[in-house]
Each structure stands twice: as structure tokens, then as C-alpha cells.
Amino acid sequence: IDSLVDGIDFYSSITRAKFEELCMDLFRGTLDPVEKVLRDSKIAKSEIDDVVLVGGSTRIPKVQQLLIDFFNGKELCKNINPDEAGAYGAAVQAAILSGDTS
Question: If you write DSSP's letter for every residue of 38-96 in order, what string do you get?
Fold first, then answer.
């Protein structure tokens, strides 16, 4: 962090294991919206064909592993850039709503 106090920079590094330990509650919380969507849509985990990652935090290996475990070992779809997936989905939905079939 540049100039944290009186122009003094702060730098610290931690291991991946420590990072995962510190963030585990947050990581587990990422499954809450997934569970809610499945519950609200009345769809079972077993009915999901593809799990598409959206957002930069989905690059975190522990988040990926939690999702793989949640979906009983299903491989995650990684052929879509997680930073662009939301915009891509919005564009597809806009085309559907506008009746564009191209």
C-alpha cells in the first residue's frame, strides 16, 4: 500500500495456505447465492450441465475447489473469460429479449 502512513509504504506477503485460512468464511459464503439460485429455481445440482465462472475472484483456486466439491466433482467451464462472462451473458439476454436470432 503506497503511502499508508506519513509517506511510508506497507508491504507484506502471505502464503496461499494463510490466505485461504483467513478468507475461508468468505469463500464458503460464495456458495450461498449458488444454493439460493438452485433452491429458487427448483433445480437439483445433478441437473446442471455446465458451471461457468463469473468475476475475477473465481480465479482463486480455493473458490474453484469449493465449487467442484459442491457440484460433486463436476469440472468447471473455463473456456469463457470470467471477467467477460457477465457482459457476454447480458448481451445474449439482450439479443433474446430483442428477438435478434443472429
Answer: HHHHT--GGG----B--SGGGGSHHHHHHHHHHTTTPPPB-SS-TTTHHHHHHHHHHHH
Digit-coded pLDDT (tens) for 24-65: 999 999 899 999 999 999 999 999 999 998 888 889 999 999
Per the listing, cell 450441465 goes with 49
pTM, full prediction: 0.76
Q: Residues 58-91: pLDDT tens digits?
A: 899 999 999 999 999 999 998 888 888 888 889 9
Of the candidate CATH numbers 1.10.150.20, 3.90.1300.10, 3.30.420.40, 3.20.20.380, the domain formed by 16-98 belongs to 3.30.420.40
What is the grid cell recorded at 21?
485460512
Q: Where are the domains of the chain?
A: 16-98
